[in-house]
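Posting for a labmate who doesn't have an account.
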Amino acid sequence: MHLRTLSALLFCFLMSHVHAQPNANELALGVVVVDRAILEMNGRSKEVKLPDAWAQSGRMGQATYTLTLTMSDKPREAWAIYFPRIGNRFEVTVNGHQVGKIGAISDLSTDSALRPHYFRVSDSLLQSGANQIHVFLEGERNRYAGLSRVHLGPDRLLRLDYEWRYNHQVGGAVALTIVYVVCSLLALVLSLALRQVSDLLFALATAFGAFRTWTTLLETPPFDYHWWAWAVDMSYAASMACIYAFYVRAMGLNTRRWDTAGGFYVAVALVMVTWHSQAERSDIRSIWLTFCLAYGVFLLVVVVHQWWRHKTLTTTVLAVASVVAAGFGVVDYLRVFNHQDGYGGTPLLRFTAACFVVAMVFVVADRLITSLRQERALRISIDKEAEMLRLELASQYEQQAITHAETARTQERQRIVQDLHDGMGLQLTGLLGLVEKDTLDLGEVQSEVRHTIEQLRTLVDGSETFDGTLAELLGHIRHRIETRLRRQSIALEWQVRGSAEWVDTAIDPIAALNLQHLMFELCTNVLKHSGARTVTVICELGVQAGDLTRFHVCFEDDGRQPRGTIGRTSAGQRSIERRVRQLQGEIAVDHPGGEGWRNSLSFSFSNLVLKLAE
């Protein structure tokens, strides 16, 4: 591998130091570079120095180059002819035998000047003494026609330089095209996702750059070469305009002013490129290239000035890329495109676009990284604010729970006062009336005292604050009712119907107080007025029309002493009705079988559940 590299370097060094008429020692080294030839064109012959660029001499049409190679001995191995640049169409003969042909003569769609060419020459075609090499060439004024220096030598050595040039020029163009296409697609996706004009400009710049680089790989244009040349040059102008429009936005300049300047540049390019491509005016192309160079230098000054004013990382990268790209452009303009010896050299113009693309990739990546960092910082800030809000809401929830509990206690105190006034006051007043009678009935007094005690127990049982589920509340109510009924020898039948899920629902404390007082009042009425032997309580959760879930309670006794209007006008009945209203429920009272009482209660389940828990 190292020997091959050293051989290639030695070969390149020798190529630049040989002449058209090599001596025996030069031939022994194996490499010949022909830099002079006889040109025959339009019936005239003259000696020309290679490389011969037709654009500088104003030639077009057909011509024949004659090169003479004098050899002291006949070679004993295959040779080759290497053209770093030749175009647009040509044929090569050695001692009257054709060794290569590129393109069809008079077919203007063929252009081979954008890549190197290599042809093997059989050792049988070469002879000792003078060997005549003829290159028949056809070219146009507006295209890159001409002949570079011609390299001759053994195939095993000459191929090294050709392969390096081919891989560098053709392989580099393929690699750049792929990179440009990938960058263009990624930038297009970013522009659609983020709605950024700069990303769209990046996508357009790399797309035009990909097209411009891809054209160097084609020998035959897909349509008329005049319009093909127009498309190639306009893609270059459009890519340059998009690049600097991107620069303007990245550096924070006045976009309206610079967009106007870019639009003027594109308009001038459109006129001049169309003119020279259709009229075949090479002078117009030279003027256009000069205008492009002037525009690039002017924008370079603006970028450097902006960097001088604001030395940020972005402006530094863009300024460095602009300076390097401008240097490549100047070298190409002076050495390759507008100098006789430049024909056959490798243009550096493709690297200018690469510099711009690298700079734009950096700007886009830096902006994305900055956005991601800002987004992360914002997300952390939002998380902290959310945690603070959560703690604040938890504090408010606790405060609300305390307030809610205090409200429940206040309402309960009001209820106790009202029950003491309506219930216990009435009971004690009735008891006082019995004592004040002339004739005292001991059994009646005992009954009144007993009911007064039960009323007092009801108040005490209902004064406890409840915090639990519906199942726990129903169990508490059942225990208290069953205890009171058992003391009066009354049986209790208790039924709970429905799934086990709803009974585990947390109950609002105020609703729990009202519900248990309601059940205690119903129990008190049974003890006081019905003379029943059995009490049946059925609790059930049902669904009515409209998907409304309701909680039903049926409280029924088998009393045999009709109460007439006593139940309707008593303090206990009024307390029951008040509790039902507070729970926003419904109550229906009837006499099953003409005896006893049945109280059918119905409540919306949503009025019973704990709202704060939701």
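Reply:
Got it, the structure tokens are right above this. The radius of gyration is 53 Å.
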